Amino acid sequence: MTSDMRTRPSSAQSSRQPAVRGGMSDDFRIDNHDVYRVPPRERDFIHYDRPGHFFDRHSPHCFGFRVQVLPPHHVHRTFFGIDYYICDNVYYRHYHGHYIVCRPPFGVVIDRAIRDLAFATVRFAYYSNVYNTYRAIDENNRYIDQQNRIIAQNNATILAQNNAIAMNPALARSSYDVANRLGLVQSYAYADKEYYYEDGVFYIINAGGQYQTIVPPAGALVETLPDDYEIITLDGIEYYRVDDTVYRLTLVQGNPYLEVLGQMYGSLSRKYDYYN
Length: 276
Prior knowledge:
Elements: E1 5-7, H1 10-15, E2 28-31, E3 34-37, E4 66-67, E5 75-79, E6 82-87, E7 90-95, E8 98-102, E9 120-121, E10 123-124, H2 142-161, H3 169-182, E11 184-185, E12 196-198, E13 201-205, E14 211-214, E15 220-222, E16 230-234, E17 237-242, E18 245-252, E19 255-264, H4 266-271
């Protein structure tokens, strides 16, 4: 994989759009012969009974779409200092006098048997086996730093015991250099664990045998982006943003993937925070 994997340059990134889950007729508008993509939050309001459970693969999640009012039986919870409004496994956040359907926060456990759910298994471009520090680490994301130290040690042990595991350390280092320069923080993945993905949400199976939402791990590869992605420019290069997760377009054996590069925190996150 290493020799066939390359990050596409900015010119290639800007010349093609990523594959997107879903899609509706009002995704784009034409203005003076130019075509513009319309993000879900700028499309028509939807009714609060339209979104399905955030983990339901057979119903629309409607992440990024606005509702005018909340369901009558919602509950209010605060995670990581952010207010969420929850009803029947659909999460909302306040948005300019209305509400937006959003993904659940990290650490939410799905109260369903694993056999009743089916998520895609995540492929990785690399695994980090060296602990690195990030200049964007602060008290609000210190837990990622602590977790990375443990995971890097675990992966280094696995690599020493089994050289057949392709961790691609050179690619991991290159990705770290880019992420840290841009002010992102990376969350490492265990090389000996399975990770799962669905519509912008990443999962592991926790110690209790249930799916649990996690910080999107660096190096994870997905084939499509959710409908509510946005294009942002960092250091002169275009990237794709889903919530606070930044992706870059990558070629793996000639096929395009979206690779998780890292997470935005602090001032960088606030710069692109459309909730405020």
